[in-house]
Amino acid sequence: MASADPTHDSIQAAFTKRIEADRLVPLWNFFSNWFTFDPQAEAEPYLWHYDGLRDSVLESANVISAREAERRVLVLENPGLIGKHLVTDSLYAGLQLITPGEVAPAHRHTPVALRFIIEGSGGYTSVAGERTYMEPGDFIVTPSWAWHDHGHEGEGPVVWLDVLDVPLIRFLGANFTEHYPEERYPEGPPANDSLHRYGSNLRPVGYRRDTLASPIFSYPYARTRESLEKLKNHSDWDPCYGLKMEYIDPTTGGPAIPTISTFIQLLPKGFSTAPYRSTDGGVYCVAEGAGTVRFGDGENATEFRFGPRDIFAVPYWQSFSIEADEETVIFSATDKIVQTKLGVWREQR
Ligand code: 1HN
Predict the structure, then answer these.
(1) Domain residues for 264?
(2) What is the DSSP code (8-state) at residue 182?
């Protein structure tokens, strides 16, 4: 910080310059940038209207095949993170398209991927040879280092939201990718085998967990929605969350993904959440409903109208509230679990 004494300042500047060649930097020159009173996100609040993007997503099929692209995705790049290709400071997100008959070839990587299905039917993802067919609103997990490819046996486009923990894994220096020598990974168990085996409050006798990943790949919207439907008449509404549920690994009760927390929440028609902020940043996708999301207050306030299939980014420590004009269901994925495990997660209601 500049002092009132120019001699003092120039002595410091000269000193800083002199030690530069020794790869030394005075902490006092940037301490206050790093150690702010509270977290300062680079990401900005932003909302993508799906109906406005849909043409571009579909047009991408005329520009490149899924095979050539490997994954034909339009990345949701936060306006505060231009060139970084990220939706929030800690998460990557994109919209992936697959058309009938196409194959997105088999590969695996250490970052975890999740899919939230936006539109279409007949698409599937195969994880370790087990297919999961996709329907809108389904939440599907591709665990770390699991072989996976995607295909489409139906008609019309299939589009989903991908969210990956790439920034975290890259930052930690653990980002590896491998391409399977064939286009598809060999077929394994029948479709949805893991859901039937582990997703009905049952597990095989003698089951031993050997990875951190949930053994189920698919959380079908039909089941999730039915739970919300049944619960909505007999639940206390959290003022900040409405009715909010977390997707879990049924064998541990922990999160469905070791590094990304995933949620589904229902807000009844006319409900307004109280302003809320937490240290986890995330990406939100509207499964059903319409309303307004408001970020911040006073002069810095911004608001976005939302409808079905719209996607918005909530930066960390960004206060926001949601007003539902209709009964609204929102999926979200954040880095809450990482922060919780590290003991640094905070919220302010
Ligand atoms: C990936 O493997 C997929 O498997 C989607 O569908 C998006 C973004 C970055 C790195 C790998 C997929 C991805 C990705």
Answers:
(1) 46-348
(2) S
Digits of tens for pLDDT over the chain (349 positions)? 556 788 899 999 999 999 999 999 999 999 999 999 999 999 999 999 999 999 999 999 999 999 999 999 999 999 999 999 999 999 999 999 999 999 999 999 999 999 999 999 999 999 999 999 999 999 999 999 999 999 999 999 999 999 999 999 999 999 999 999 999 999 999 999 999 999 999 999 999 988 888 999 999 999 999 999 999 998 899 999 999 999 999 999 999 999 999 999 999 999 999 999 999 999 999 999 999 999 998 888 999 999 999 999 999 999 999 999 999 999 999 999 999 999 999 999 9
Q: What CATH code is carried by the domain that includes residue 225? A: 2.60.120.10
pTM score, whole prediction: 0.96
Tell me the sheet residues that pair with 104.
150
Note whether residue 25 is domain-resident: no
Domain count, the chain: 1
How many angstroms separate the alpha carbon of residue 321 from the centre of ligand 1?
31
Distance 349 CA to ligand 1 centre (A): 35
Give distance in angstroms: CA of 70 to centre of ligand 1.
Answer: 8
Our mutation pick for probing the ligand 1 site, out of 72, 108, 109, counting the most ligand atoms within 8 A of Cβ, is 109
Query: Cα 225 to the chain's mean position, in Å?
Result: 20
Q: Is residue 21 part of a domain?
A: no
Report the helix count and the strand count for the chain, using DSSP H and E: 8, 22
The binding-site residues of ligand 1, defined as CB within 6 angstroms of any ligand atom, are 71, 73, 94, 96, 109, 113, 148, 162, 164, 166
- Position 32 in a domain: no
**CB contact set of 184 (below 8 Å; sequence gap of 6+):** 103, 105, 106, 126, 149, 151
Task: Write the single-letter amino acid at 328.
Answer: T
Residue 89 included in any domain: yes
